[in-house]
Design a protein that fits this description.
GO terms for molecular function: nucleic acid binding; protein methyltransferase activity. By secondary structure, the chain is an alpha/beta fold. The chain is built from twelve helices and nine strands. Helix 1 (15-32) packs parallel to helix 5.
């Protein structure tokens, strides 16, 4: 289904029906208190109430809060409002948010990331603010070596296409991007997002496992980036419910130590990159970072230089 912000406002509802739903939904959100946060670092009531307001903004076409206030002040609850969803669907969606802990981004069908609005749905990892730093690092690298701007860039495990699109916007009129993913759902969603930003001539979305779709470009890649699975398998069950229950395990589970895909990328990156190429990837924190820096320097001698770690927002 299309995300709400792209749907036509083919429904209508009255102010009174909408306010009744909003009051019910807000009461449910308030009843949560800090219980989700205490349980698994989930959202508290204040965040849920903000999500509720964002949902209204997405669903109501040309939403103007003052219109509602005026209707209430005039005691005219039957004022008609255009909507992108039926009120009964709103009840169902908010129950899913509260009872199933379904991620808000899957409910509205999108996530705001950098200056992008990316469509997402079940089966695709929701892009995180922390991952934005990868695009920032690419921008820094290009500013120091303009030659990188004209080369081929690769986003491995692209998911929604977030990193690939972010890099393509930095490249401007130069260079190109290949975005790969093993998941057919991710390929479909990434392709949709690429087309929404009119970047289909800039970004090639290719289905396959990690480096498999890159046959023929060995040694020609200017930059290779990834946000791979890095959660240890036995840590998935302890994640926030929104993540552990709903986001794709394929994009989360990095094997027994969380290192399987990270090591695979390190082992394969050197053969893909051209001399002075750029390589950046996200990890699960300091312990993994230290291990991988040591691995790249000592187990893959001569393959990488200027190996650094950077802290993100998390």
């Amino acid at each position: 289904p299309l995300p709400f912000f792209l749907r036509l406002p083919k429904y209508t509802t009255t102010v009174s029906d909408l306010l009744e739903w909003h009051s019910w939904a807000k009461s449910l959100a308030a009843s949560v208190g800090s219980s989700f946060e205490d349980s698994d670092n989930g959202p508290d009531s204040s965040l849920l109430c903000r999500e509720l307001n964002w949902l209204m903004e997405d669903v109501l076409y040309g939403f103007d809060p003052s219109l509602m206030r005026k209707a209430v002040a005039r005691d005219d609850p039957d004022v008609i409002i255009s909507s992108r969803a039926d009120v009964q669907e709103l009840y169902s969606l908010w129950k899913q948010r509260m009872e199933e802990r379904r991620p808000f981004q899957y409910i509205v069908g999108c996530e705001h990331w950098r200056d992008l609005i990316l469509c997402v749905r079940e089966g695709v990892l929701i892009p995180r603010p922390e991952t934005e730093i990868i695009v920032d690092l690419v921008g820094d690298a290009i500013s120091k070596d303009e030659g990188l701007r004209e080369g081929l860039w690769v986003d491995l495990g692209t998911g929604s296409g977030a990193i690939a699109i972010g890099i393509a916007k930095i490249l401007g009129d130069y260079g190109s991007v290949i975005a790969t993913d093993l998941s057919p759902v991710a390929i479909q969603v990434a392709s949709f997002n690429v087309e929404r930003y009119s970047l289909q001539d800039k970004i090639e979305v290719s289905e396959g496992s990690w480096l498999e779709p890159l046959k023929g470009v060995e040694g020609k890649v200017a930059g290779l980036v990834s946000n791979p699975p890095y959660i240890p398998s036995d840590g998935i069950s302890g994640l926030q419910a929104e993540v552990g229950r709903h986001e794709p395990r394929l994009a989360l589970d990095g094997g027994a130590e969380g290192m399987d895909d990270l090591l695979h990328l390190c082992n394969g990156a050197a053969s893909m990159l051209k001399p002075d190429g750029f390589f950046a990837f996200e990890t699960n924190g300091e312990k993994q970072c230290k291990f991988l820096v040591d691995y790249m320097q000592n187990q893959l001698p001569g393959s990488f230089c200027n190996v650094n770690t950077v802290s993100d927002f998390a």
